[in-house]
Amino acid sequence: GNIGMLICVSVVSFTSVSHSQITRLYSRFTSLDKGENGTLSREDFQRIPELAINPLGDRIINAFFPEGEDQVNFRGFMRTLAHFRPIEDNEKSKDQNGPEPLNSRSNKLHFAFRLYDLDKDDKISRDELLQVLRMMVGVNISDEQLGSIADRTIQEADQDGDSAISFAEFVKVLEKVDVEQKMSIRFLH
Fold it and tell me: How many C-beta atoms lie closer than 10 Å to residue 16's C-beta?
């Protein structure tokens, strides 16, 4: 169980975005946009204190940028932020056949999974887990201890015996974790 917490808590503790806050987010976006060209660079994101101190800050920042791009516009910014909006109770009862909202549990889990899947092969290997754990804990813990945490995590999650964690296995480990609350971003103060 604590492995599930470990995996999820590492993601981020950020809050919600409601429609009335879009205007405020836009002004936050423009205040971050130092080049005043309507897009943000990675450096602009690094000025956000919550991301600067978050051990996975760089991975989260990367998630805002489409493959091969080094700028993100307001629309892309909002789209990525949408994953972090807590799910309101009234949203749970919405049209079941409509498109799944970006902040649905499954999309949040996909987002978290991608932070770990460094080589994008749809599996989290022991090595990837180690790299992310190392980012999270810094140097305060020995490689040996990290190795045993990684081994235990994989042992607990790996159901098909391939010594890696697939998305389905990742979801299973996080079944009892309150992903909605653990993954929300505080971009508004």
Answer: 17
